[in-house]
Amino acid sequence: MPERPGRSARTVPDVFPPTYAPGAHMRPPLALVLALALSAACSSSSTATDRPQPKVADFSSGSCRSVAEPVLRLGRELDTLSSIDMPPPDLLEKLKTAQAALRALQPSVEPSLAPTVEKLVGSVGLVRLRADSNSYERQLAVTALEDYDAVIAACTGGP
Length: 159
Fold this sequence. Notes:
This protein has five helices and no strands. The protein has a domain of 101 residues: Four Helix Bundle (Hemerythrin (Met), subunit A). It starts with 29 loop residues before the first helix and ends with a helix. It is mostly helical.
């Protein structure tokens, strides 16, 4: 094809370095792969901090005793969540079940305990919402654990 006046032939820029070998840039160094695998294995080896939990019998009678079971289940799940980066679906399902059980009991909770229980239900809801939207942060579970501790303190007299 003849060139038009005023225009020069275009050259294709060299986008590959002179040492380019097809497929070579796709393989990460073996040491990097091993280091990532080792760090993942070490970080996921312990998922719960094993906080001591009271027993149902430690809860005061009345509203506290009625919410004891779902509150303790939430505590176990939140304890695990506070030490991992992204909750697995089975853990979120357990959290959902315990939160639903506690929410169902909310209308029958004594007025003095209601705000504390409501705060726990809300913070667990935020954990679930953020996990579902892939924007979970470990601090959310830590905050929910603080709300859990407030319910424990109100119902057992201890931390």
